[in-house]
Structure formats: structure tokens, C-alpha cells
Amino acid sequence: MTPHFGLSESENNQTSVYPERVPFLRPISQSWSQFRGPSRNGLIPPQRFSLDFSKPPALRWVKNCGPGHSSIVTEGELVITLEQNNQYETLSARSLDNGDEVWQRVEKTSWNDYFSGEGPRSTPTIADGKIFALFSNGILSCVNAKDGNSLWSIPIVGKEFEFPEWGFAFAPLIWNDLIILNPGGDRGAVKAYSKLNGKLVWESELAGKGVYLSPSIHSFLGEMHLLVAVEGKIASLDPENGKTRWEMPWKIFLNDVQIVQPISLSEDSFLIAAGYGKGAECFKVIRDQENGSYRIESVWKSKNLKAKFSNPVLKDGYLYGLSENLLVCLEAETGRLIWRGKKYGYGRILICQERLLILGNTGVLSVVEASPKKFTEIFSEQLLNRSRCWNGPAIVDGYLIARNGEQIACFDTAVSP
Questions:
Q1: Contacts of 66 (CB under 8 A, 6+ apart)
Q2: Is 72 exposed, middle or buried (0-12, 13-18, 19+ CB in 10 A)?
Q3: Measured between alpha carbons, how far is 1 from 329 in angstroms, rounded to an integer?
Q4: Buried/exposed code over 52-70 (b: 16+ C-beta within 10 A; e: otherwise)
Q5: Exposed e or buried b per residue across 128-143, where buried means at least 16 C-beta atoms within 10 angstroms of its C-beta
Q6: Against a cut of 0.90, is the pTM above it?
Q7: pLDDT above 90 (res 17)
Q8: 236 touches 269 (CB < 8 A)
Q9: What pLDDT, on a 0 to 100 scale, did the predictor assign at position 2?
């Protein structure tokens, strides 16, 4: 079942608009290599430059782009995303300097559904100078990031596979020499391939219908756990071989399809949250010392964080997230509500230093202090046009890159010299 949100009215596509004076691009030493950032958790790494979030950032460039919900990733001076171009899904690379197209890689396929609209949903992942992109027809492609040349492509599902009604929304996970995907299915709901040549390495015992959630690696009790989901269930797999370590039911009213990512809270606990009246729940991972088996126990539950679409973030023992569309702060250890803020729509949240960056579904950028003391909004301004924005932004070396289904733009958040 697709999450149902109010749809914002789209403005007409705009032509490229540049500031009168564009400074030289600063040297780029960082990359935003995957969905939700380098660590896949919404935390922006320390920047080499002082950033100014006291006011809206300065526009560097803006370009038209095709529809889709794919987020931004970067490699060096390249800005990379998936978008729709007529009957082709397009893996595009643009210049971080000016937004000009550097190369494209296309796949003749498209996805369109009533609630989510047109375009690819998955976000590419970058590792070792290679881009791993999943197209909506189930083709996984590995291309050279520098020039877009194809290295290999494989289908990850068969011709009889029943796709979810929203298509594939998950992002490939790179772990060691593996590419891990969770398409769902009657067998092998999670699969791992060699990132060298695309050959299948293992398939999971876990089976079930696919969900939105992307696979992620977490360290619990000194072991690596691959957290995944199928409809109505959360599971941990051994990332080495795909064997199930533990699984538990996870039921959501009207919708057993998990969307937001799990969050590690400690060396033996994690959080799962959902909308549709479900709320958030903290679980403890317990391992039997004699036989090594696992069990999962609930620590706390809260209806104050109904994270329907937006992934919460963790900072200094406090959770910040959109409960439906209302920003809230919870104490991670107990689930106690600390404060309620404003409504920001259904968007993406990142943490940068002591700030929350919220890009709402209507293209509004809001900056809020990441502090449990009180809710303090610094500013909230239109960043993109009002076309629906479910795409995650990126920040590298002070440059904020954002997109929706019509525009892609670069802004400078660094303090002016």
C-alpha cells in the first residue's frame, strides 16, 4: 500500500537561472555516496568550511530535471541521480560547478502509479569509483562514475516477479565486496551479489513481499546484523551468507509495508517507527550465551513518533523526527516526549552540526536547532519550486544539492569570506 499524502500543485518547469556572479568552485574532498549520506543515517559529516545556517543558502545554479523520487548522491565534482526522460529511466551525472550534464546512462523502462506519480524511486550507491543503480524494471547496473561507461548489468528478479505497486524504492547497500538488495519475493527476498562482476553470492531464507525500506548494517553485541524487512516482518540476517539470525512481526494498521529505516540506539538496541497510527518502538537484542540464539524484547513504545515517511535522526541521546508531519523530539533511552515543534510536511531530515535540516515535500527548507532544551526554528524558506519533493538532498564541502520532480539545484551554505 502506497503512503497517501496531499499532492502539492506543480509550477511550470523553469529554465536555468544563475546568480549574476558565481564564485569559483571550492576544492571537493567529500562524497555523498549513498542514500541518507555517507553513513546511511542522515548525519552530515564534518565540513572543511564553516557553514552558515542563520539564513537561506545562496543559489549557485538550478536546472530542469526529469520526474522521480531518487535522492542525490555525489562523487567528486559529479552530482548523480536517477530521473525519467520520456520512456527512458536515466542515470544522470551533472557538474557540481554549474549543473551541466556530464554523461547519461539510460534504460528503456518507466514506472508510474496513481499515488506516487512517475519516475524511478531508488537512489544509486557509489563505491570505489563505481555507481550501482537499480532501475525500476529490476536491472542492476554498475557503471564507471567518471564517464558512465557500463561495467556490467544484471536482472535481479525473474519475468514472473510481482512488483510492489510503487516499484522498487530501496537503495543498494554496499558491504565489503557485496551489493545487497531486498526486492522481496516468494524465495530469496534478500540477495547479495559480487560488486566486482554482479554474480549472485547468496539468497536469503527469508521470503515475503517487498517493502520500501532499504537494507542496512548495524553492530549489535559485537556482531554485524543486516536489518531488512518484508511485509509484516522485520528480520536480521548474517551479511556474510544471508542466514536468518532473528525475525519478528511488525504489523502496521492498513499497511504492513515498512518505509523508514531502523536506527541503532546502543550496542544492543534499535528503533523502528511507522505511520498509520503505529508509532515508534525500541527493541533490545539479547543473545543466549550458551547456544548463540537471539531474542528480541520491547523496551518502550510511543505514539508520539509516527514516522510515516520521513526517517528520524539521532543526536546525543535524542531522537528528532516527523510524527506524520509534526516535528518532535524524544529521549532515546525512554521514549519520553521532550517537545513538539511545527508541521513541516513529509520530507527528509538531516543533522548538520547543531542543526536539523528539513527539506519538506513542497520544496521548503527549514533549519531548526537540534537541541532537547526547546524547539527553535531558525528559518523556513522556499528552496525549490512546489513540485512534490520526496528526494533526499546532499551536502558536500558546504554545497547543498537538492531536487524534486522538476528541478535540481545547488546552493552554497559556506560562510562568505
A1: 83, 84, 85, 90, 119, 405
A2: buried
A3: 28
A4: ebeebbbebbbbebbbbbb
A5: eebbbbbbbbbbbbbb
A6: yes
A7: no
A8: no
A9: 33
Residue 4 vs residues 83, 112, 169, 303, 363: alpha-carbon distances, Å = 22, 15, 15, 19, 18
> Which amino acid is residue 33, in one-letter code?
S
- Cell numbers for 144, please give them: 564507471
Detail the DSSP E strand segments found in 212-347: 216-220, 223-230, 233-237, 244-249, 263-266, 269-274, 279-287, 294-302, 313-315, 318-323, 326-331, 337-343
Rounded to whole angstroms, the Cα distance separating 283 from 31 reads 32
Among candidate residues 110, 113, 147, 120, the one with its CA nearest the CA of residue 131 = 147
Rounded CA gap, 172 and 134, in Å?
Answer: 7
Please give the single-letter amino acid code of residue 61. W
Contact predicate 311/349, CB 8 Å? yes
Q: How far apart are the first and last CA of the chain?
A: 50
Q: Distance between CA 321 and CA 335 in Å, rounded? A: 12
Residues 6+ apart with CB under 8 A from 12: none
Using one digit for the tens of pLDDT, what is the confidence trace for 187-241? 999 999 999 999 999 999 999 999 999 999 999 999 999 999 999 999 999 999 9
Better-scored residue on pLDDT, 306 or 12: 306
